[in-house]
Amino acid sequence: MRLKALQADVLRISDRYAAEHGIDRDRDWALLKLQEELGELTAEHLRLTSRARGQADPDKLADEAADVLGMLLIYCDSAGIDLEQAMRRKWLSWLSDQRSSD
To answer: Using a CB cutoff of 8 Å and minimum separation of 24, what contacts does 13-19 make?
Structure first.
């Protein structure tokens, strides 16, 4: 699945969720939610590595990772970030550098 298509689907779901629950997504909402979801991912990681109390669940870890990605996509949209372009510039450019040195 292409990142922009995934982002569009996530944004539609987020719009529906916000409308159904009366959530006012102001300027910094997406960044704050991203931080919240990262905290939940961290908590699951700690449980899975026996460094926190509670039942470890690999599916819950995966769900929290999905929440982090979803909120990152929402944040990037609200901040005007083209994540695909940024990934090509910041990360994938290393692949073209490696190919030219091979």
So the answer is: 13/70, 14/70, 14/74
CA distance 79 to 50: 37
Residue appearing with tokens 């910094």: 28
pLDDT digits 0-9 by tens, 31-71:
999 999 999 999 999 999 999 999 999 999 999 999 999 99
Name the token pair of 35. Answer: 């931080």
Beta carbons within 10 angstroms of residue 85's beta carbon: 9
Please tell me the distance from the alpha carbon of residue 93 to that of residue 75, in angstroms, as a whole number. 23
Give pTM, 2 decimals. 0.90
Q: Which residue reads 């960044």 in tokens?
A: 31
The per-residue pLDDT for 100 is 62
